[in-house]
Specification:
There is one protein chain. The protein has about 240 residues and is an alpha/beta fold. It folds into two domains: about 70 residues, Ribosomal protein L30/S12 (60s Ribosomal Protein L30, Chain: A, 2-Layer Sandwich), CATH 3.30.1330.30; about 160 residues, 3-Layer(aba) Sandwich (Alpha/beta knot), CATH 3.40.1280.10. The strands form two sheets. Strands 7-6-5-9-8-10 form a six-stranded parallel sheet, with helices on both faces. Helix 1 packs parallel to helix 2 and helix 5 runs parallel beside helix 9.
Length: about 240
């Protein structure tokens, strides 16, 4: 099973960016400077790369070699283009489109479990944000049971922009959130839909809740206030599947 690749060295990472490798995350030593570092900073400034500024000890653990203060993780999957996927899917006949957006889900195993469930439920693509979300790493690949290679993944600069594009394409956007009075089973999922799942700690951000078309929550009868995000996602997706069967 293919896993993510670690590369290191300033020039190596620069060449990876210039050759359009699928870089998942870049770790840069705090306080690093110099001409090559300035060139790297200029390159990463042109796109929304997921960057962490860390102490040298962290880099020493990530790479066994002369990392020069820079280490990057290259994703084992190729990210797809949102516009192309949506346009192609809308033209197809049969089951209405179903997209899944993840708003800052940070745990790689949760991410992998969501990918696995999404693939089983016929999700057309999973959309994530370039910064702040979980990486596509070995844990993601393993937890997904290989589904990560069977379902299109899309990385965007901002989830909001993806939502606006989906809405403009005639796709209803529904957010799963406890901050609503509407229950999941009250909604109609027979039409094209995109489901938004939020982070493990904060859920779907308030700024996104303001722009979605509908919100829904799961009924809860126990003393625990919420479910794990991957479990909640499975409940939502299988209600969509049930309605469409």
């Amino acid at each position: 099973m293919e896993e993510n690749t670690t590369i290191f060295g300033i020039r190596t990472v620069i060449e990876a960016i210039e050759s359009e490798k699928n870089i998942d995350k870049i770790y840069i030593q705090k306080g690093l400077s110099g001409p090559l570092m300035q060139e790297l900073q200029k390159l990463v400034g042109k796109q929304e790369y997921n960057i962490s500024y860390v102490p040298v000890e962290k880099l020493n653990k990530l790479a066994q070699g002369n990392h020069q203060g820079v280490v990057a993780k290259v994703s084992p999957v190729k990210f797809q283009n949102l516009e192309e996927l949506v346009a192609k899917r809308i033209e197809e006949v049969g089951t209405p489109p179903l997209f899944l957006l993840l708003d800052q889900v940070t745990d790689a195993r949760n991410f992998g479990a969501i990918i696995r469930t999404g693939e089983c439920c016929g999700v057309d693509a999973i959309i994530i944000q370039g910064k702040g979300g979980a990486p596509v790493n070995a844990d993601t690949v393993k937890t997904s049971a290989g589904a990560v290679f069977n379902i299109p993944l899309v990385k965007v600069n901002h989830i909001k922009d993806a939502i606006y594009y989906l809405q403009a394409s005639g796709i209803k956007v529904v957010a799963a959130t406890e901050k609503t009075t509407s229950h999941l089973y009250e909604l109609d999922f027979s039409l094209p839909v995109a489901l938004v799942m939020g982070s493990e700690e904060k859920g779907v951000s308030s700024s996104i809740l303001k722009i979605v078309d509908e919100t829904a929550k799961l009924p809860m009868f126990g003393s625990i206030a919420s479910l794990n995000v991957s479990v909640a996602c499975g409940a939502f997706l299988y209600e969509i599947v049930r309605q469409r069967m």
